[in-house]
Amino acid sequence: MLEISNLVKRYGKDDAVLKGLNLSVTGSEVVSIVGASGAGKSTMLRCINRLVEPTSGSITLNGLELTQLRGAALRKARRKIGMVFQGFNLIDRLSVMENVLAGRLGYVSLFQAVSRRYPQEDIERAFYLMDRVGIAHYANKRADELSGGERQRVGVVRALMQNPEILLADEPTASLDPKTSEQIMVLLQGLASEMSLPVLINIHNVAQAKAYTDRIVGLRHGQMIFDGGPSDFNSDALDAIYGGIENPDDDGQDISVSGGVA
Amino acid sequence: MVEQKEDSLAKYWTRYDSKERWIRYVIYFLTVFAVVWAVKDIDIFWPWVWDAPNQMQNLAVRMWPPELGAWSAIGAALLETVHIATLSTMLTVFVALPVSYIAAQNTTPNRATLWLGRTILVSSRSVNTIIWALLFVAIFGPGVLAGILAVMFRSIGFIGKLMGEAIEEIDRKPVEAMEATGATRMQVVFYAIVPQVMPAFFAIVILRWDINIRESTVLGLVGAGGIGVLLQGAIDTFAWQTVATILIGIVFLVLVGETVTSVLRKKVL
User: Which of A131, B117, B132, B148 is deepest in the core (most CB within 10 A)?
Assistant: First the structure.
């Protein structure tokens, strides 16, 4: 269970990007986070695994407070948080298998990592997961030889190799064509229920958010203005989240419109 | 009316306006001034310059035919030259890589290490190989060891600086992904940074090996081993026919080095 309370993130002296965010995710929920560019979606996700340092507030994952962790304790916590990126973030010159096994880096020694002597069960799990997403036959191909959809599958498998307790996906389909991005959404949805894994997905595509996730969270200017099921997400909510973007001073009105809070 | 005006405008065009033109004249003048000043100041003894064609012809006659009797000694010295280049390049890698890591802005642990790394690179690069060789001959005595260290100390700056730049140009995304898996700092380096700088690394090391072969040929002039020792000896004893053979040998060696490196470079890239 992930519990975010009163999360604030401010870059330098600028206005806060996240203004006291509260969110709790339980079970194997697939939650999509929608919002315009700059609403703070990516910052929120990166605060969870501390790729971005939160300014204040608390984030706990299954009872472990994440915001104060340092050094080895932080690395140990990160092993339990898988992340999928918009740009796939693969190591292009390494093979698919090496990219997938990189998900185990938090569990193996430097020598094992450099000499590629991963435990047999890691290799078996890698083949099982690659087979599950349909890329097992690419194991020895270089990562940059794959198509976008295939590369994102490698990214997903890498994150799952960590044996995570939660999966974060930062715009996982934004670099993909519509058909491929639907496939990736189906895959994330399926894997979440198979592994009873909670998934947080930042997404721009509202139609996909409604079709493939159990819950939608709407962010605007660093604040949550919608939280509910896909069926509650009506045109009012859409308007509150994306409407009047060129006029960012009408926040008060937006919040009142989002009456569909579950 | 309007058409005519446009017409007359189109006929007047200059590449530079008057201010730019003046700047150009000043630069021309300064260049000529620098050349004239330098030639006047360095005090050339002109009779020797006019005599040079004679001397050249004379030297060529004394060099002909090249003395081929000493070929085995020359071959051995050429091989020693290659060994100096190879060993010093390999040793350099072990020192230059850590230095490049702390001299690259995106990987250095803190400001102090960045400053340390850059100082090492600048001091290595600002001292010529021959001057390093003079220093090491004074410390270790004449011989190959002094030569290897001299070439190595000059190469650290070269390989370190270029590798540092390669590290600064990497894509940050894989680094972020590896950090997110809970990898340690060194694991991130070996997975996200090393693969990205590999092609640059091979290209730089091959290039430096090629340069080091050429640098190693002159080390002998200050007693630091290689073919230059024989060359110096032959010049000192006026054995001009042997000098000719050695020069041919050096040209041959450099050509072979260039061929090998261009083949290797094609294989790597």
Answer: B148
